[in-house]
Specification:
Layout: E1 2-6, H1 7-17, E2 19-21, H2 23-34, E3 40-47, H3 58-70, E4 74-79, E5 81-87, E6 90-96, H4 100-109, E7 116-120, H5 127-135, E8 139-144, H6 151-156, E9 159-162, E10 171-174
Parallel strand pairs: 1-3, 1-7, 3-4, 7-8, 8-9
Antiparallel strand pairs: 2-10, 5-6
Length: about 180
């Protein structure tokens, strides 16, 4: 089983739940749920450029190292793209960090190595990927939340799991919001 996690989608779910997803328990949960013996997890994340936040990004980078070295995940990351936008309200910076292409490339690149895929995203842009994998006789399970999944993607997979409804074993600590200094 190969698992593709869109970190921005997962973050939206975590904010709704008010708790962090326990990524340590993920492989065990998926192994038990799908009777999967071998699980490879890909974690896709965009991160802010140094100097663009009032807080240190060291914790985020340590988290990526933990995922890679501690949990054996493949971590695919890129810096958020900063786009200068002019509107009637003035100039501001918009940040984008879409990882859809990277997820799709990896799902296709490794297609011979798995029969079952778990996609942690609710983005309708993945509909074509899910259809392609089905045409190659792959099972695809969609993990997202009811308030963050497109109807098309939710019904395209072999099954849909509302992450918010998963048992407590998959959820970790409460989210503590950063205090302004």
């Amino acid at each position: 089983m190969y698992v593709f996690i869109d970190a921005s989608n997962l973050w939206a779910v975590q904010k709704t739940k008010g708790r962090f997803f326990n990524l340590e328990n993920l492989s065990q949960f998926l192994g038990d749920t799908f009777n999967a013996k071998k699980i490879k997890v890909f974690y896709y994340a965009a991160y802010p450029a140094d100097g663009t936040r009032k807080y240190s990004l060291e914790g985020k980078h340590k988290f990526f190292v933990y995922l890679k070295k501690g949990l054996g995940f493949a971590v695919i990351k890129k810096e958020l793209k900063r786009i200068h936008v002019s509107t009637e309200d003035g100039e501001h910076i918009q940040e984008k960090g879409n990882m859809d292409v990277e997820i799709t490339i990896d799902a296709l690149h490794h297609i011979q190595k798995y029969n079952t895929a778990a996609l942690f995203s609710g983005d309708a842009d993945f509909l074509a990927l899910v259809k392609y994998l089905h045409h190659r006789n792959k099972k695809v399970f969609i993990f997202s939340s009811r308030n963050n999944v497109s109807q098309e993607l939710r019904t395209a997979g072999d099954a849909y799991f509302d992450v918010l409804s998963l048992g407590d074993g998959i959820w970790g600590k409460e989210i503590q919001h950063r205090k302004d200094k």
